[in-house]
Specification:
By secondary structure, the chain is an alpha+beta fold. Helix content is 20%, strand content 20%. It contains 4 helices and 12 strands; from the N terminus they run H-E-E-E-E-E-E-E-E-H-E-H-E-H-E-E. The two termini are 18 Å apart.
Length: 235
């Protein structure tokens, strides 16, 4: 229903705009910022939303997330995330069990697990390595390091942070573990928009709503979609 979609979009914008990354924290079931996961094109054909059975790689974004230069984005880039031309999902923070996090793409697809066999990042130490892992309660430190790295590169964040969410608990809680599916304006001319609708059909009336995520915006990037399921031109 439109009202439900509007409420969900407003909720996501509140998480995004009100987050203060220098003090981002995980307190109980609260997570400031928005955890998103871009769906790879083949996902709609799979029975599972997990490419890797034990984890769901995601990105934590907020109003101060470094920006990255993608095609179809403004000169200063879009919010640094995996693929702005792919649809995806917003994770429900109360049901997102974070295993660990990395300040940049950690290429967790190249290992048997997402967090083990990586050295721990030490609080208070100057870390520029992208390989060390931050614990779930160290997200503020991870984000601070991500911003420092982006600033050292002249403001182009380029690399997105990678937050590894526990896969089994995410799947067990479906569809409640998904706050919303999203499409982006950058994908309008590309294939892939149908994938989130195909996945949504699996859950019937319990399916999470479909909203728009515009990574080119610096505030309130979430909004309603039009009748065709695309990001509306008028916001």
């Amino acid at each position: 229903m439109p009202v439900a979609k509007g409420a969900v979009a407003s909720r996501c914008n509140a998480w995004f705009d009100l987050a203060q990354p220098a003090w981002l924290r995980r307190q109980g079931l609260r997570l400031d910022g928005v955890l998103i996961h871009h769906l790879e094109p083949e996902t709609a054909r799979n029975d599972s939303l997990l490419r890797f059975a034990n984890r769901l790689p995601s990105t934590l974004i907020s109003a101060e997330t470094p920006r990255r230069r993608f095609s179809g984005c403004p000169p200063d880039g879009c919010i640094a995330s995996y693929r702005v031309h792919w649809p995806g999902l917003v994770l429900e923070p109360a049901l997102a069990l974070v295993d660990c996090a990395f300040q940049a793409d950690a290429s967790t697809d190249g290992s048997a697990d997402g967090c083990l066999h990586r050295r721990e990042c030490l609080p208070g130490a100057e870390r520029t390595s992208q390989a060390c892992r931050w614990a779930a309660d160290q997200l503020p430190l991870m984000l601070e390091q991500q911003r420092r790295t982006a600033a050292a590169k002249g403001g182009n964040g380029w690399n997105y942070n990678e937050v590894v969410v526990d896969g089994p608990s995410f799947e067990e809680a479906l569809p409640r573990s998904i706050t919303a599916f999203f499409v982006t304006p950058q994908m309008q001319q590309r294939a892939g928009g149908g994938s989130v609708r195909e996945i949504g059909v699996r859950y019937g009336q319990l399916a999470p709503p479909l909203i728009c995520y515009d990574p080119s915006r610096k505030t309130a990037p979430f909004s309603l979609v039009n009748e065709q399921g695309h990001c509306s031109a008028v916001r």
